[in-house]
Write a structure and sequence with these properties.
Elements lengths: L8 H32 L7 H20 L2 H5 L15
Length: 89
């Protein structure tokens, strides 16, 4: 293939196939991810066990945010303990 020859139909088809083989699985994975996330939804919990689990996770997230903030780390003395008041053996 010289400088002014251009691409043949076969070469263009081969490049298009390579692009499709490369991007096809990526697009498929993205569509599958969107489908799964849309299917799950964020509806309300319907039973007491679910509400208790949500409440415990919310409290744990609050506690983690409180003890893992930059202010909490930079205003305490290093005492070999963690943010929850437990000592390491």
């Amino acid at each position: 293939m010289g400088v002014g020859d251009g691409w043949s139909i076969a070469e263009v088809a081969r490049m298009m196939m390579a692009i499709a083989v490369f991007f096809g699985p990526l697009v498929g994975a993205g569509v599958a991810l969107v489908w799964v996330l849309r299917r799950r939804g964020n509806g309300p919990t319907e039973n007491v066990d679910g509400l208790l689990i949500e409440q415990m996770r919310s409290q744990a997230a609050y506690r983690d945010r409180r003890f893992a903030s930059g202010l909490a780390h930079h205003t305490t003395m290093p005492d070999m303990g963690d943010g929850y008041g437990w000592r390491r053996p």
